[in-house]
Structures
1.
Amino acid sequence: MPPSPVASGTCHLLFAYDVALSIDLDGAAALCRQSERESLSRKRRTPSSFQYRPTPVRVTLDGEPIKVAGFATHPRIEITLFDFGAASVSYQIPIEAPLEGLLALSDALYENADLLADSRRHVADLLWTIRDAVDRPHIADFVEDYAIYQIERLAPGIATPDDVIAAHRHLLARILRSEPGELSESEAQDAVSARISYAPNEATIIDWNAAIVLMQKDAEDARAVLEYANVELLEMRHLDDQLDDVLDRSREQLARLDRWWRMVLPSDRAVRRIAELQMDNALLFEGVNNALKLIGDQYLARLYRLAAARLHLPEWDASILRKLETAQSIYQKLSDRQSTRRMEALEWIIIILIALSIVLAFV
């Protein structure tokens, strides 16, 4: 294998959090000093319909550099807020090293405790700042991280990104998988298989944990699409977890109703709470899936579909739809049984009143 080329560029490390039921983006932007509305620049020929609805808010914060495997993060930190209650924290790490150096960096970035703690602290501070524009603020326990290695320049003598991938496929695969050890041929091939290019002198390789953008000086739109895909994965996990809770509560209520000896009516509060949770999750599912409008077969749309397939978003969508349908079915059964119990109670009251009237007539 030829010696690996020196790579120059930036590593963009993303941390996605679920922080609220919803965020008033206009109100959040007004409460933050350094904020701007995030939009796709559409430098390529894409229609105006290919945009966010509504446009997220990007907030710039000052932080302290964090050292990672001989590299250091940039002091500037960016947090992107989405109206469906998600926040994405972005760190920039300047890179100027051989590809082997990126391997050490990727290994150190995997579930990095310092960066996780720092990102959560910044999210908590920002959430307090915009608390008046947030509905039901919270910070979920789990987080989705994703690394984008944007390599803007390679050592002289490298013709195209295809040459780099052909000569260093195993090394690139290990960087994508944060794997310090060797990978099998099939695993390496799978790691670099999801590739897309718009021009001959560029290539983007997408994997489930990271992406490598080769020789693109202007890749803001590609990074924004990958960031959104990571946020969508986080929300799918959050939805799945919440729907599990809804189904558990629904099963508990059904079990109580199935006890033949239980003559009391089911709790209106419990049934109403199940309905509220179901509605909140359905609205969140629609908000996440409709935030990015993908119209036409443009490059960014294909990039998103490739990232979604790599992160298994279609499978998450199908699972959540099944659970929403199950929750709706159980809620309908609870409502029907609640109505039946009320009718039975009224019938017993009428029977008792008739019996009492007959007894009183004889007395």
2.
Amino acid sequence: MITALDKNTALVLIDLQKGIVGYPVAHPIEGVLANAAKLVAAFRKAGQPIVIVNVNPAGAWTKSRKEPASPRPAPPADWLEIVPEIKTEPTDIFITKHTWGAFFETAFDDELKKRNVTGIVIGGVSTSKGVEGTARQASELGYNIAFATDAMTDTVADAHAISIKYIFPGIGEVGVTDDVIKLLAVAG
């Protein structure tokens, strides 16, 4: 259950881009995108920051022995574009990540600190990779985290369930879009 939101809370949406949302997922993507869009509208109305994160797998990805030796090829032209259901504005914060977590080697933390953000609400695809990776980094950096579980999904249902049941409660509060919207009105 989400009990409160910080006065300065940012909405963080992970990888709601054309190249990712087309993957087969555990929950209908239309519902996930509809809830993410509701959160965008509520955060915009409240005057709170919105962070739009996409992932570019080309180039500077973390390496392990399992990774191919050659650089990853550039994705198709529209692969990185945020889906039209998520209405972005030029004042939003746009972050392109190259790993599972959005804080690694990006200006994300600096952008949040410039705005005195102390809390984040997070959603997106995939729950167990981009969302969890970013949330773990946010926790390590001291942000208060709320998870909008109906605004996220995963390509693997069990991975989604494990993140929500076992990982997220250890680093933040877990709820749904309507909980966040109600608390957003109180936080302002």
